[in-house]
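The material for today's practical consists of a large collection of protein records. An example says more than a description, so a record of this kind follows:
***
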Amino acid sequence: MDFRALFRAPPDTPARYVAASPLFPFAAGHFPLAEGSFRNRTGDNVLGFRIDAGRYTMSGGAPETVTLIPVAGHADGFVFQQSEGTGATFYGALRLLRRETGFALFSPEGRPLDAVRAARRHHAVLGPLGCAFAAPADLLSALVPLAFGAPEHVWHVYHPL
């Protein structure tokens, strides 16, 4: 058997990190971002956040809740959970910028082969939506080293409008 095949991502499998439902309770979230809109460096994407009923909601588009879970050992680092509350939930990482106002977002899709390898090592099931995790500890074990060990060019920087 060629074991190298186990560590290659199938070409049609996205490296997105997902769960069938939220892995972290919305009440566990912290609020390090001010309410408002943020634009990425290239100007082609705007994200809006507002605090509503003790949780972040993304303004514009679907009424999705964003939960920011602090990451131990990474000052100003968070796991980014985006969910409608039921159904597919998406994950990434967020870190506050230190020398300027704003934040940077990391998506596992920015490092697809590494993301799939890490997901497989931590019990994720590969499916049409991406790498599906069933336990918070498995997601954290795959995502945190992947994100916070990633080079700067993989992070997407956002500044307030």
Remarks:
- Confidence is low (pLDDT under 50) at residues 1-7.
- The first strand starts at residue 17 and ends at 19.
